[in-house]
Amino acid sequence: MSYDLTFSDPRLDSDAVSGDTAPAAEVWRRVVECVGPHLANVEPSLNDAYGELSHEETGIHLQLTATTASISMAYWHFEEPANAIRVLYLLAGIVEQETGLVGTDPQMGMSVQQAGQHLDLVVSAYANVAAMFARRARTEARIAARRASRSDAP
Asked: Who contacts 28 (Cβ-Cβ below 8 Å, separation ≥6)?
């Protein structure tokens, strides 16, 4: 599971966005160049369909086409939710600025611009879901340990 931001071209009908192509090479270069100072060791790639970059340390993944983009971040990669959201929204600002696409935060039900004015609420939502996944993982580990101990019993 991941925290996701989506971006689209406000000038286009959402039904007309199928069959996307990669962003213009210059746009992709600017996005990667702007992201670089904020995420070291990012792994960008560009093909005929999309540009993509991944940052293993943070679990952030950005995918960009000519008319859409998405940024996702796995819940389990950051221990400090405020820093996670700050980085995510910093990247969202870069995507909006360099591409003209408009971002939406589906988890908050707001535009990236609106949600960016309430980062305390975004951090809280992110932290709550991350904690839920952590509890679930601990519970599953305890259940697996119990099953293993039962199968080891004579």
From this structure: 22, 44, 46, 51, 64
Percent of the chain with pLDDT over 90: 49
The pLDDT of residue 83: 84
Please state the φ and ψ torsions of residue 117, each to the nearest 5 degrees. Answer: -85, -5
pLDDT in tens, 27-48: 999 999 999 998 888 889 999 9
Quote the pTM value. Answer: 0.82
The two tokens of residue 21 are 């192509």
Task: Kindly report the backbone phi and psi dihedral angles of residue 101, in degrees, each rounded to the nearest multiple of 5, phi listed first.
Answer: -75, 155
Task: Detail the DSSP E strand segments found in 9-137.
Answer: 43-46, 51-55, 60-64, 68-74, 102-105, 110-111
Integer Cα distance of 12 and 21 in angstroms? 14
What letter would DSSP give residue 80?
A: -
DSSP-assigned states of every residue in 42-76: -EEEE-SS-EEEEETTTTEEEEE-SSEEEEEEEGG
Distance separating alpha carbons of residues 147 and 142, to the nearest angstrom: 9
Tens digit of each residue's pLDDT (9 = 90 or more) over 84-115? 889 999 999 999 999 999 999 999 999 999 99
Cα first-last separation, the chain: 39
